[in-house]
Amino acid sequence: MTETLRKREGFENINSESVRLILKTKNEIKPWTKRMWCINEIDEEYHERMYDVLDLYEKEYEHSSSDLF
Fold first, then answer.
1. Neighbour tally for 16: CB within 10 Å
2. pLDDT beyond 70 at 68
3. Domain for residue 11, yes or no?
4. Domain assignment of residue 8, given as a range
5. What mean pLDDT value characterizes the chain?
6. 10 falls within a domain
7. Where would I find the H helices in the chain?
8. Model-level pTM greater than 0.70?
9. Residues 23, 31: contact at Cβ < 8 Å?
10. Strand, coil or helix: what is 26?
11. Number of structural domains, the chain?
12. Could you tell me if residue 49 is inside a domain?
């Protein structure tokens, strides 16, 4: 990445440490470090749906199965 930046005007003297610091501080570049989803509470509906999916994974694969559609 540093070499690519050095080819652009104004970045000829940038070093890899500067690039590392920029990437470390700019969450917009790495949104996965800033936002994430989590489950606050597992309610009954979530529990039922989760086990439906797990049950589906346990089934043997059938090419013509209507469970997938």
1. 11
2. no
3. yes
4. 2-33
5. 78
6. yes
7. 2-6, 16-25, 44-58
8. no
9. no
10. coil
11. 1
12. no
